């Protein structure tokens, strides 16, 4: 038995020692079980899924070429200038950027709308390139693989010693958690690499810090729009995929202050490229206008109750309330038979439904019922509403904490009954929102221009965040500004 344990331990040690590699971006020797070819394959396989999840590539060849040009210029000043990289602008309004192994780098059009100049965008792209040259994703993946190897060895050893297996489940949980995001050290390392690439490529590295400040302001605004305290932002992520907390903003600012401040900003050419950029939802996926979701392609619209904020995505439309209640709208498989049968045998098969009721909503057959669901917020009351429109089936899922179900019951009913077919005039009137670059005139004020935004609430805050303006900062005649029309 002792010999078996010794051999297994030696196997593990051999695996770990043979997998140490020098990381190009840092020159450090790190544990990495993936070759460059492995990383290329991983990125290539994941790329189609990324496009599907984030609305595809933004359909503007000039924007794509512009961002790719910035990326290639940065890559040319990395430690591996000949490595293949691919840069994609995603058709997503969510402010985000991330990278996959093998040089696949993504920025969203939502992020481009928030950035104010070329140097800020270069800072974002440089940071993501830093994750690739730092091989951060590969390192996380390798640690997970090592955890699996160790789990296998540990499981055998425990089995030999005790006759009981199962230790692997615990170790697997730890490995999965490791893949949730980059570590704080890796984020700081990507910042340092990005700053280096920016400076050598001729951009002002200070603008990485200025954009991090914009991200913070944007995240605070998003919190306010969602009915939460903006102070929560200092404790949560500013990027969807990065734990970039306020102390990291300060760290990045300190890092650039220690370096050379010279370099290009490129504001005018950047704003020129933003002219006509799609803002908000892509009409092909439906659009949110205040509390109304409308989809010209499907020819339907509905309204959510006051206090709920609509968020559109390729998979579903969510509406969230600050009290934890949620409304999810999506489409299901074609309903066969009557709608009460659909609820019980297709959508909620196996669930214990109560209060099942057939009804009609604006000429469309429908059915509703209640159940309880276990969620990461605990047990929630769930009302299901399915509506048939020809071969299409629309599904509403209303989730509430049990103590709030009665308070939302009537407004949920009103919301469900608001689903209707759009008129041809309504379909024709649906126009996408776009960015327009304007020049401030004498007499223009932030307040006056903000009133022109096509939003129902927080116009002043939206305008300031969009243009990177401080709370009391005034505008000057001749100043270039972003406007949504």
Q: Would you kindly provide a written description of the structure presented here, covering whatever features stand out?
A:
The chain has helices at residues 2-17, 36-53, 61-75, 109-114, 118-133, 136-162, 167-178, 184-201, 206-225, 246-257, 267-274, 339-347, 405-417, 424-429, 446-450, 459-467, and strands at residues 20-22, 29-31, 86-90, 97-100, 104-108, 278-279, 287-289, 292-295, 300-303, 308-312, 317-321, 326-332, 354-361, 364-375, 378-389, 392-400, 420-421, 433-439, 480-484. With 485 residues, the protein is of the alpha+beta class. It folds into three domains: 1-282, no CATH class; 289-429, 3-Layer(aba) Sandwich (Protein Transport Mog1p, Chain A); 438-484, Membrane-bound Lytic Murein Transglycosylase D, Chain A (Roll). Strands 10-11-12-16-15-14-13 form a seven-stranded antiparallel beta sheet, sandwiched between helices. It has a four-stranded antiparallel beta sheet with strand order 7-8-9-17. The protein is globular. The N and C termini lie far apart (75 Å).
